Amino acid sequence: MEQNELAKTVQEMESRLAKLEKNSSQLTMVLFSGDFDKVFAAFIIATGALAMGKKVSMFVTFWGLDAIKKPVMKTAGRQLLEKMVLWMRPKGPNKLGTSKMNFGGIGPRLFRYMMGKKNIEPLPSLMEMAREMGIKIIACQMSMDVMGIKKEDLLDGIEFGGVATFLSDSFASNTTLFV
Amino acid sequence: MEQNELAKTVQEMESRLAKLEKNSSQLTMVLFSGDFDKVFAAFIIATGALAMGKKVSMFVTFWGLDAIKKPVMKTAGRQLLEKMVLWMRPKGPNKLGTSKMNFGGIGPRLFRYMMGKKNIEPLPSLMEMAREMGIKIIACQMSMDVMGIKKEDLLDGIEFGGVATFLSDSFASNTTLFV
Amino acid sequence: MEQNELAKTVQEMESRLAKLEKNSSQLTMVLFSGDFDKVFAAFIIATGALAMGKKVSMFVTFWGLDAIKKPVMKTAGRQLLEKMVLWMRPKGPNKLGTSKMNFGGIGPRLFRYMMGKKNIEPLPSLMEMAREMGIKIIACQMSMDVMGIKKEDLLDGIEFGGVATFLSDSFASNTTLFV
Asked: Of A138, A174, B88, C82, which is least packed with CB atoms within 10 Å of its CB?
């Protein structure tokens, strides 16, 4: 290789290298679960990464959508089955059950109480904190469609997308978690 | 460094760089769960990645094996406990329960109905599509051995392997999910 | 670029490249679940990776802590709620339930029996093996704090840390799993 050609190759490689290195500045998650404990873990990881200066992208799908619902939901204009499913699912972070020891809803209260005693941020504030720190939340349009969830039922300021959105973030991230 | 030596180093580095870049063309999954909703999510992610031109490797283990069983299984020649476990587990994508709201099997029917109304591909076609698009499915031999599942009980055309197969795919993938 | 300058750039790039390549020599896990089957899968993956010469870091949090508890736990000096939760949770790998087919504790026995018949290492030995092979286990201090778990309640020789410890390992690993 000529000196000039070599210099050009090196410069090109440097930008390819920088692109790969950028992957360790991003974290991607699928929030599939709507269990209080798992959603809590997801947001602890998210805020931790944000505090370390990483970009965080969270793709929320299936039961995970329960966590980003507004507490009040008008179900007018939905099909009967959609209404039934929406009615049975918890609405927002304060209504989620735990994956273990739920005991008909006593478990989550107990855990919230125990966490409060240790001065741990409650889930809604943790989620708010993540949003202030710049987390990108993408609600899965297909899941919303299946369960009859509308954009106005979910938190303001989130994005909407499909699996391709998640995948392109994930392929640009060193760490991808399915929670 | 001499000009020649430098050129050689650069060339060598370029192939190392290309190898690392290749990682973003591969996605690896462990399908541990056999819940309808999680299996569905796994195959939505898989077909999405395949459509983007990525290679997808899915290592199916434990309950995930339920999803790739043939609908009819002859349990002759198994030990009593194996027979019992096989008899109790669902066989194939149409028999899987959901992780939430299963209601003794009504839940999955309800979801299949709601998904059909939105023109979403049913799970068996989604799985078939993934296979036509070239997904690599590897059934975990150890799990098969423990539960007394034989090769002929599972879908045709899948591969069989151990954790090392999964790990070598995973270390060559930017994204690895445990579902 | 001058020859000298070029050589310097190339050398610098080589060390950046080596750093990225190192990522495929590390595996990071969050062990969130305390289900026998998932803990077993996590340690099969861990020992597999260790046998391939990889470094393995396992961040144990929430229910996962059940798996690394000592079989006997003195609950003196805890608050009432903490005592209750500790009393209800399984202690150590031999007491874990399965995520499916638990049948009030019969399931895990059945699986242990079926695994023994196939000469598969029992979970406690698998865990011991992972530790001898050099796995790094980090117990999540926040979860311990919430549930009133003390350092002396957990296996000897493990480390203690927070989400930042997990994240920095994860960003240096090609594969990160949330189990």
From this structure: B88
Distance of alpha carbon C55 from alpha carbon C133, whole angstroms: 10
Cα B2 from Cα C4, distance rounded (Å): 9
Q: Which of B167, B168, B169 to mutate to test the interface with C (most CBs of C within 10 A)?
A: B167
Nearest to A88 by CA among A99, A68, A73: A73
Strand order in the sheet with C55-60: C159-161, C136-140, C55-60, C26-31, C175-178
Query: Measuring CA to CA, which residue among C58, C23, A58, A12 is closest to residue B24?
Result: C23
Give the one of C3, C24, C178 whose C-beta lies nearest to B171's C-beta.
C24
pLDDT at C1: 61
Q: Are B143 and B65 in contact (CB under 8 A)?
A: yes
Against chain C, the chains showing at least 3 CB pairs within 8 Å are A, B
Contact A52 C164 (CB under 8 A): yes
A143 DSSP 8-state letter: H
Residues B1, C17: C-beta atoms closer than 8 Å: no
Chain B: closest CA distance from residue C27 (Å): 9
Question: Can you give the pLDDT at residue B1?
Answer: 61
pLDDT digits (tens, 9 = 90+) for B101-152: 888 888 888 888 889 999 999 999 999 999 999 999 999 999 999 989 999 9
- Residue that the structure tokens 């020789």 belong to: C157
Nearest to B3 among C3, C38, C100 (CB): C3
Phi and psi angles of residue C131, each rounded to the nearest 5 degrees, phi first? -70, -40
**ipTM, two decimals:** 0.92
> B69 forms bridges with which residues in the sheet?
B154
Beta bridge partners of C39: none
> What is the rounded CA–CA span in Å between residue B128 and residue A16?
36
CA-nearest of A58, A80, A69 to A137 is: A58
Q: Which residue of C has its CA nearest to A21?
A: C20
Q: Determine, for residues C37 and B174 on separate chains, whether the beta-carbon distance falls below 8 Å.
A: no
Q: Which residues contact A55 (CB under 8 A, 6 or more apart)?
A: A25, A26, A27, A134, A136
* Residue C61 contacts residue C32 (beta carbons within 8 Å): yes
Q: Supply the pLDDT for residue C126.
A: 96
